[in-house]
User: What shape does this take?
Amino acid sequence: MSRMSARVTVDQNFLVRSRFWFARLGLALIVGVVIGLGVMSQASAARERPGPSVLTSFDGPFDPATGPPDATLAAGPSRIVELVNSQYAIVERNGVGVSGPIRDLVGATQSMFLSDPQVVWDPDSKRFFFSIFENRGSSSPDEGIAWGFSKTDTPGSTEDWCRYFTRFNYGSAAFPDRPSLGLSTDFVMFVSERFGIPNEDPQGVDLAWIKKPEKNPHCPNENTLNTGITPLTDSNGAPVQWGTAVREVDPSSTGWVIAQPSTTSASLLLYEIHKHGAGATVAGPRPVAVPAYSPPPPAPQAGFTAAGLPAPTLETKGYLTQAYGAFDPRFGHIDIWTAHGVAGGAGAAVRWYEINPSAAVTDQVGTITDPTLYVFNGTIAPDRLVSGKVRALGSDMVMTLNTSSLTTDAAIGVVSKHGADPQSAITFVKTSLGPNIDFNCFQPTRPSCRWGDYSGTSPDPGAPATGPTGQIWIINQWNIASVDDATVDWRTFTALTLP
Assistant: This one.
């Protein structure tokens, strides 16, 4: 799908308010970590704080007929639901379970186009929700969002789900690209980039919402569900650039959306969603000042094509990935954790934020950079534990990311941060066996190979409540090896991490 180009300015060093990796040709020292009231080097941080531990790991779902995976997952107390383009998996905590075509989960036929899956665990109603962009049309467009929820907290098959298709105001006129998925106690929310049909002209960013159905073993009729959609604009009425709906770990009647403005590179925008009668009201935007950023350049990768040419670069992307809303006992309030790609380090870096939405200020900001590795495709989650009456932890985080360079294949890494302690070095958990070269690299309108388009993280509601930290599940992309557009060799990897 098309993506709007970033229109931002140059990255700067900044102050924030308030284990290693041996590359093929040597040691890469991590730099540029921002902590507390100043800036300190990543090499110093690594001596004080090791990276996350991996408690368990297993291969995630994949489909060699599509790409990129758009990998996402959600952790319930005893089940993990994983979605990638064209495939689903419902597994126990050891990775054992069922999997199959995602159309079976959605209730779609083979002729329907599906892309951009999302899944989230809802601690409020103790069930999973999913969403995916769907075109039901065969001879003409019929665009909308397929979505649904599990009838139980332990779904075991595709029969354990209620599923729907909501057009909102897309249909034959426009389509919702890369819809994010967020939840409050009252609403299921989708934030999508809107593109016109047939020219794929960018038309801004939409917030679509559905009044959250009551938890019931029977699926309610779709005609009984209240829905709505509104464009997201800045204070001057200009469309925003990108946005994502917030997933609430601590359930609240206030829903949140965070977006990137199209007219400045030194702020983010917050929107509040509240119940109003049978519908919703959207308040905002409120700006949140952040260090200036610019879009990341594509990432080089090692290897060569079948023709002997250097492997093409990988897309790094600058949009906000998933966002979590969770109570942080260190600060004493709900915060929003999110991240996006920025220019920095060897070329590409990942910037993350912990934002106090009530005050519209940042509580923490950090950047993951490396002098020799491009860092990209990062997604963050706090270690907040909410399960039944248990509400604990929430001051630590884990982020999953990818790295690559001209001499290294793409790898999956994880970074953690404990409270006010320094950010950790990158711990690498999976390295590709060769370059990523497939049909996505040779499209006329794309100078780089598709990668991602996003990774996934999920706080673990099944973590021990007595531990000093919580646990966080991650899923991300790696690659076996491919040298031409005849083979798609991407894979996904799932891990349970301890910050």
